[in-house]
């Protein structure tokens, strides 16, 4: 079945600033961050901050894969359940999962019970372990950092893929990863600081320290 990629925007309150919303605290944020307290906290503390460790990147790659076709808020609300179900996203532990684990996970109402995504996550853990001989997952992902980051002034100017995300998807697929298409990989690059797509004027623009 073809991979369905989508990184949904969570709509915020009506705004006439083409994507920026000023909260009650006086801080401007991208509109999707205002969908709930959970989304605002994620935006303010985590989204776009650099992640360079293997486990952290494997977790976020896995969650982006589960998000395909769903809203990010749905995944974020189930994050702790995913961590419990997938051994805190320890690649070595997940790589040892077998068919019994697949069936166990398919019965776990706390996560997304999608056989293809579950088996892909297990396969991606094995691919992550195998990548260590070639520099590792972190090196591979961060080697696709572009020379420049987007500078969007509205949501319409935020890309959904890039030449670098296409190249990263190709490399990961060649290494045995699944659910890692160009759109999903661009969403990953946004989430872990490889690019900065905070809108100009957001209080989080440049917060990662990766891009000045």
TrEMBL record:
The keyword Hydrolase applies. GO terms for biological process: base-excision repair. Gene3D superfamilies: Hypothetical protein, domain 2. Its EC number is 3.2.2.20. Keywords: Glycosidase, Hydrolase, Metal-binding, Zinc. It holds the Pfam family Adenine_glyco. Zn(2+) binds at residue 198. It is an enzyme of class 3 (hydrolase). It comes from the Bacteria. GO terms for molecular function: DNA-3-methyladenine glycosylase activity; metal ion binding. InterPro entries: Adenine_glyco, DNA-3mA_glycosylase, DNA_glycosylase. PANTHER family: DNA-3-METHYLADENINE GLYCOSYLASE 1 (PTHR30037), DNA-3-METHYLADENINE GLYCOSYLASE I (PTHR30037:SF4). This is DNA-3-methyladenine glycosylase I.
């Amino acid at each position: 079945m073809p991979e369905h990629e989508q990184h949904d925007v969570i709509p915020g309150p009506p705004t006439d600033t083409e994507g920026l919303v000023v909260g009650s605290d006086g801080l401007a944020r991208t509109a999707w961050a205002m969908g709930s307290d959970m989304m605002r906290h994620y935006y303010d503390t985590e989204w776009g901050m650099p992640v360079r460790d293997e486990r952290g990147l494997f977790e976020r790659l896995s969650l982006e894969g589960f998000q395909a076709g769903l809203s990010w808020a749905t995944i974020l609300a189930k994050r702790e359940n995913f961590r419990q179900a997938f051994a805190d996203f320890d690649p070595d532990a997940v790589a040892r999962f077998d068919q019994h684990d697949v069936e166990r996970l398919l019965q776990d109402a706390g996560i997304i019970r999608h056989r293809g995504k579950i088996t892909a996550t297990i396969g991606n853990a094995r691919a992550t372990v195998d990548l260590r001989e070639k520099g590792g997952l972190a090196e591979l992902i961060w080697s696709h950092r572009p020379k420049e980051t987007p500078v969007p002034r509205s949501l319409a100017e935020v890309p959904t893929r890039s030449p670098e995300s296409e190249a990263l998807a190709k490399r990961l697929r060649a290494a045995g990863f699944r659910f890692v298409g160009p759109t999903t990989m661009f969403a990953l690059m946004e989430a872990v600081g490889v690019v900065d797509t905070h809108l100009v004027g957001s209080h989080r623009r440049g917060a990662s320290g990766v891009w000045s």
